[in-house]
Amino acid sequence: MNRATRRAAAKGRETRFVKKAPPSLLFCSQLKEMLLAEHSAVLAFRSGWADSCHFDMLLECLMMMQFAANDPVKDAPDTNALNVCQFASSALLNIRDRYDDKKKLGATGDELRALDLLVETSADFWPRQSASIYFRAYDKTGDWKRSAHAEANREAA
Questions:
Q1: pTM higher than 0.85 for the full model?
Q2: Spacing of C-alpha 19 from chain mean position
Q3: Are 95 and 55 within 8 A, CB to CB?
């Protein structure tokens, strides 16, 4: 507990803890790693050796961009990013449905184009956003994954 927190507690005031975003240089290095992983996932689908980790990476890319494009801090939603997310979402749903039927991950030419567009839009979208928007989208995506996992466990039981 730092001195400001102790003073506030002594005066009977509530303290608010605000999660700070990491410095911009750290954000840039994390962004480069994320974009490389997304491009690798599309390459895995294009080459025919994709597994569930590659699918999850692209789904996470989609969800993060969707959450960030709708961020309430922004003046207006990014309609271009949302349109790309909708296009890629249908491709990922088709891939998942095909996996449920055949137990093999693969993508058609149109689905690969949609995934390419998603990754290219992500590479263009994130450098124009602040680190705080990125980390809010990251937190929302984590919440979404936890709720989806809990729902899947409930259905299995």
A1: no
A2: 19
A3: yes
CB 65 within 8 A of CB 122: yes
Q: For 24-78, where are the alpha helices, taking DSSP H only?
A: 24-47, 52-69
**Amino acid at the residue 112:** L
For residue range 49-108, what is the model confidence (pLDDT) as tens digits? 999 999 999 999 999 999 999 998 888 899 999 999 999 999 999 999 999 999 889 999
CA distance 102 to 84: 27
Cβ-contact 139, 67 below 8 angstroms: no
Residue 135, burial from CB neighbour count under 10 angstroms (0-12, 13-18, 19+): middle
From CA 44, how far away is CA 34, in angstroms rounded?
15
Residue 125 neighbours by CB distance under 10 Å: 18
